[in-house]
Amino acid sequence: MASFIAQRAVRFVAVLFTITALSFAFLHAIPGNPIQILLGEHATKSDVERLTHELRLDQPWYVQLGAYLWQVGQGNLGRSLADDVPVSTKLAEHFPATIELTVAAMLFALLVGIPAGIVAALNHRSIVDTFINVGVLVGVSVPVFWLGWMMLYVFAYEPSRIGMDLFPIGGRVSLRYAFETHTHFVLIDALLAGDWAAFGDALRHLVLPAVTLGTIPLAIIAKMTRASMLDVQSMDYMRTARAKGLGSWAVVMRHGLRNALIPIITVAGLQTGLLLGGAVLTEHIFAWPGVGRLAFEAISNRDSPLVNGSILLFAATFVFVNLGVDIAYAMANPRIRYS
Predict the structure, then answer these.
(1) Which among 109, 127, 131, 328 is most buried, taking Cβ atoms within 10 Å?
(2) SS3 of 149, please?
(3) Bridge partners of 86?
(4) DSSP secondary structure, 217-242, as one string
(5) What is the CATH number of domain 88-145+213-332?
(6) What is the pTM for the complete model shown?
(7) Contacts of 194 (CB under 8 A, 6+ apart)
């Protein structure tokens, strides 16, 4: 286990270094002056040159990269060019929103996708299997931006026209609720404040973006669950379990699903890492103040410290999610051991 952790640590550092170097190179190659964008079109040449020198943006990109790596090694991600706020502070404020949305979306995907895949496998080549397969194809094919707008129109905008406050249009919680922020997780902060009305309101705000974001992972998980369950149904241990007189539920859940979990865990882990990397379209449509929306705005403004900080966060998140997937492998299958 110690060697496994050491290998992962080396890989973690290598991934972060490579991603940082590439992002610096690409940002340096993009046309346009971020200082000009920051100061506006009416800024004088002397103001642009002064601020460019103060921020050391007049140096070659590899010099800036070395300085940035030294800075990151000391735990400092720099300050945003847009408002001079520390990058770590902005990420700490926005990343909890992305985590909340991702967790809700993956719970929706898992709670619906796994049972759907099991039912499809148990009813192989029946009308139920066909119906679920069609649903999977639709879920994968529908663009997220179209689905998000349709969800808003059908479940938020149209009900509001007839006086029904079914779901809110955007945001994380209504403005009428005010409570102290401790963790930047709205659901947790509402519970800590003992404000159950705010907690319920935050859940209502979470439903539409979570369903929109979780639709594609749901379809992929359902498809993988179906394929895995079809593979294990013909195995000897499944026939043995049935011959022992075990009930259908016990055979499916204790013997079938447990042995089919490895590919399901892989897909779920990859989808979680992708969603935590920033669901830009969903966050934009639902005015969700997550890190994906923050990174998009930073790229638009050529805010290089914030862009690099966001990319580092995305890379680190993906590495940690993959580590969690490896640990889940060992929990799902006792034969898997890391040394």
Answers:
(1) 109
(2) helix
(3) 79
(4) HHHHHHHHHHHHHHHHHTSHHHHHHH
(5) 1.10.3720.10
(6) 0.85
(7) none
